[in-house]
Predict the 3D structure of the following.
Amino acid sequence: MKDRYILAIESSCDETSVAVLKNETELLSNIIASQVESHKRFGGVVPEVASRHHVEVITTCIEDALTEAGVSATDLNAVAVTYGPGLVGALLVGMAAAKAFAWAHGLPLIPVNHMAGHLMAAREVKELQYPLLALLVSGGHTELVYVTEAGHYHIVGETRDDAVGEAYDKVGRVMGLTYPAGREIDELAHRGQDVYDFPRAMIKEDNLEFSFSGLKSAFINLHHNAEQKGEALVLEDLCASFQAAVLDILLTKTKKALKQYPVKQLIVAGGVAANQGLRQRLADEIINVDLLIPPLRLCGDNAGMIALAAAIEYEKGSFAEFDLNAKPSLAFTGLK
């Protein structure tokens, strides 16, 4: 049987990434050009700056991905690209590059939902067994997804306000930590104690919805009040208390979902899946279910995960015309 190669492009936020996938799960390359240093001084991603950086490096990333994979355009079978959700300007850069490359080389175009990419990154760990449940946690999303079969996603719970990664970055900014703050908060939390007892919103309710705005507000109010009174707060304890509240919410809702949707596998993916505190709590508390967490290199935004999701869409014949447009608020419902 002839090998199949898919070139994938991801540019939904502040990483320009291009990957080459061989057959189902063999990533031959996964080039990532990060913009973190450019956005640090702003304390968050500036859409216009992100778009300009994508334009500057996208062609080089494509060339590097092909070179590292040891393949040429003539070896490829398809081009995959993230078409949403994400920053519209950033998405359009990746889509323009993917369309141009696919058209120039006579290749079909595979549109991929960014969140499907995060979920399907777990395919590199182990073959997926359906139905399965996924907890997707990132800077822009917090949702529980029930996957009935490959490519069929059903959101069963999501955040009503802030995404969990967004909450990390906002409290990190209040503490004066460097953007993105998630990793530093995680490290500091391991050296502190949960002494501030922040609220766990909606944790006793039967639904599978999340809310982090109340926790964020409680944190900010405590910090500002202490500043006004000249009181010193222990940074490590602040981080430990914030993270303990976040993890209690995530674990409680995930366990409820597993009771409502009995499955053999639980996938935890997205940028926040790199959090060591979350990984430890999952390992300790999730039992009788096969826990799959993508390797750290596939947790953040990257084209490797888009390629792994594209392989599923390729088998389904889910190709797009060249009038495909970016959908910054794309819902997690496949291509429908």
Notes: Residues 89 and 271 are 21 Å apart (CA to CA). The chain has a mean pLDDT of 92. The first helix runs from residue 36 to 40.
